[in-house]
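re: ur question from earlier - yeah i can do the single chain one, its not a big deal. heres the input i used so u can compare w yours
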Amino acid sequence: MNRQPSERHIIWSNLSLDVDDWREAYDKPIRLKNLGEEYTNEAIKRRLIENQRMKIEPFQRETFRPRQYRLPTRGNKLRKKGGLYGLYLYYCYRLGYLPKYKKQNTARLHYLLKEDLLKLDRISMEARLLGRENISTDKELFSYKASIENQIETLTDERTHLRKTLRRNLSDDELSKVKGQISTITDRIRTLRKEVTLCDGIAERSKVIEHNLEQVHADEDKFKGKERNRYEQRIIAATKALIAAIAAGGWVAVVVIIVICLIALLVGSVFGIFFSGEDSGTGQTMQTVVQEINVDYDGRLQEIKNSVSYDKLEMSGSRAVWKDVLAVYSVKVNTDPDNAQEVATMNDEKKQLLKDIFWEMNEISSRTETKLHTEITETDDGHGNIVQTETTVTETFLYITVSHKTVDEMAAQYGFNEEQKEYLAELLQEENNSLWSAVLYGIGYSDDQIVTVALSQVGNVGGEPYWSWYGFNSRVEWCACFVSWCYNQAGKSEPRFAGCEWQGVPWFQSRGQWGARGYENIAPGDAIFFDWDLDGVADHVGLVLGRDGSRVYTVEGNSGDACKIKSYDLNYQCIKGYGLMNW
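and the output i got, formated as C-alpha cells:
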C-alpha cells in the first residue's frame, strides 16, 4: 500500500524529514542521512533509548533563606584599640557611656567611676581627639601638642602683623578684608587653644584613669576572692562530711585514703622541695637558709677584699642560679641510696648538706697584679710657662673571679643515673618557675616576669654580662645596665639607659611615669632611684620586688659590685623616686 507522507511525517525506510522552515528555503525535502553520522538509523535509535532512561524530576519550589550576618560587638572593637585611645574607650565603657545602644545601670558603678560621670562631656571630647588624631602614646600626645602650639605661635605672629596693617591708610574695602582675616585667625587660635587644653587634660587624666581602673580591678578581684573563699568553705564542709563518712566505712573512705596517700607520696618525693618554703616547726625554711648562705657568700667576697691592699678591683663571672642548686640538692638528698631523706622540711643536717652542695657548685678565686704606668702632670713654673713632669706610678689590681658548675656537671660529679637525671630535668622545667619563685622569694612567676628575671641574677658579680650587653668594652658603673638588661630579657625594648640622672630619670619623667618618694602604688618591676648624697642627683637604680606596710624590697645590680636583694624603709630619705612601668 502506497502512503503519501504528511508534512511532518518521517519515513524510516527513506528517513526523510519535511519542516516548514526548510520548505520555505528548499524545494526538495532533506534526507537525514545527509546531515552526518549523528543522524544515521543507529545513532537516532541510541539517543531515543537513552532519553527513555533519563529521570526527569519536577521543579521544586525554592525555599527562601534569609542571609545571616554576625556583626562584631562593641566589646570586640574596644579590644582592638590600645594605648591612650584604648584606655579612654575602655573607661567610657566602664562608665556606661559606651556602647550607646545599650543602656547601662549606673547604680552598680564603682564609687570611683561615679565621680567621673559628671565629667563625661570632657572625657568624651578628649577621647574623640585621641581617635581623630590616632594618638596612642604619651610621646605622640606631646608631639601633637607641640605642633598645635607652633601653629598658635605662627597664627599669633600673623595676626599681629595684620593688626599693624590696620594702622595704615586703608580703604573701607581693604579695612573690612583685614578685619575679616583677623577674625578668622582669632577663631582658629581659639580652637587650637582648646586643643592644647584637651591635651593637658589627657596627660593628667590618663594617670587618674589608670589609677581608678587599677583600684576597680583590685576591688573586683577581692570580691571574686570572697566568692572563691565561699566556694572553698563549701569544699571544706564537703570534705568534713567525707571524713565523717570514714567511720561508716565504704568506698568513700577508700577514695579519701588514696588522695591522702598521693599527697604523702608527692611530699616525700623530689618534688617535696616545692613545699620547703613553710616552717615545719624547726624555725627554719628554705628562704632563711638561702639567705644565710647568701650572707656567707658575700662574707667570703669581703674577706678577699680585706686580705690584700689594692688600688683597683675588677670582679667577673657568675654563680649558679639558686633553682639549679636546689634541684641538685633535692635529687641528691631524696634519692641517696644510703640515706634518703625528704626535702619538704629543713633542719640543721639538711642545711649543712645544702651548704656543701652550694660550695661544690660555686668557686671564688682571686689574684693580684702590679702594673706600672706613666702619669704626666702639668705645673706652672711661676713665669707663665707650663712644665710637664712624668711620674711612674705603680698600681695593684685585685681580680676576683666567680665560677660555677652546671647541673649536668654536678650530675656527672655525683654519678646520677638516668632516673635521677630525669628528675633533674622535670624539676627545672619552665612551668615550675612559679613554684621556684614561691620557695625562694615568696612570690609567684605570674606576679611579674621582670622580677623573676632579676631574681635569677642574684649573686652575679662584676656586671660583665650587663655592661657588655649594653655595648661597653670595659667595666662601668653597671646598676643601670643591669636594670635595662632585665627589662630587655622580659621582652621590653624600653627603657634602655646606662646613666641614672641624665638618662633614666628623664625617660620616666618625660612620659609621666614618675612617682616621688612615698608614692604608694609602686608595683613589682618598677625602677627605684637613689640619691645617696642628697644633692638632688640620682646615683643608683634598682628594681622593685614588692612592698609591705613599711618597707620596699629591691633587686639591685652593682651593689658592692654584685646583684643583691635589699630592703629599705618606705620613707628612707635617699630614695629619690620611682620609675613606673605601668604594667
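Confidence is low (pLDDT under 50) at residues 1-17. not sure if urs matches, ping me
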